[in-house]
Amino acid sequence: MIYTMTRGKTFILFSFFFQSMTDNNLRLVGYCGLYCGLCAHRARIPKRAVLLKETLHDEGMDSWYKYIPSMKEMFPVFWKFLDQLTKADCTCRTGGGPPDCRIRICAKEKRVDTCPLCKEYPCTLINNLAEHYVTAVQDGRRLQKIGLKAWVKEQEKRAKRGVVYADTRIPWKN
């Protein structure tokens, strides 16, 4: 009888827990299936921006710039820019990336959390992306094989080892 009375509450609690767990796992997983924790904008550039700010500060540039005419106007803007780089936290789930990203639009239309969970994976959009992010399709197949939670743990380990996509990415031609 107690089970029947608390069943609805238990379900709601389980549903909330499951949703929170899924949202947390997806936090750094792009719609395309790339792991944002392996992006240099998140993993490498903020650390280097901090180091550059520290070096400039140690050399007194954050106050000395005022006495260098060519830096008088630019340095404060540059300092704010460096500060922003230290706080990089963009993902396509938080409004980062191109607003017209065809992959994001497609994933949302198909109601998939990430492309590797789509029955059409890898599609033309993903294959085009994989011409530049050479591990994209293999990583997506790995996600399919072991599941989102285990895959995210693997990506976190890669990030701790210093792996970033920039090291293997093939640049786009302008």
Could you name the key traits of this structure?
174 residues, mainly alpha, disordered N terminus
Q: Name the helicity range.
A: 55-70%
Low-pLDDT regions: 1-21
Query: Which structural class is indicated by helix and strand composition?
Result: mainly alpha
Radius of gyration: 21 Å
Number of domains: 1
Task: Work out the strand percent.
Answer: under 5%
How would a textbook summarize the main sheet? none
Question: What's the overall average pLDDT, rounded?
Answer: 85
Listing every helix as H and every strand as E from the N terminus to the C terminus, the arrangement reads HHHHHHHHH
Overall geometry: elongated
- Number of β-strand runs: 0
Please give the alpha-carbon distance between the first and last residues: 68 Å
Helix count equals 9
Short summary of the structure?
The chain is mostly helical. The protein has helices at 2-26, 40-43, 45-58, 61-64, 74-86, 102-110, 124-130, 136-146, 148-160.
Give me the secondary-structure topology:
Layout: H1 2-26, H2 40-43, H3 45-58, H4 61-64, H5 74-86, H6 102-110, H7 124-130, H8 136-146, H9 148-160
Helix pairs in contact: 3-5, 8-9
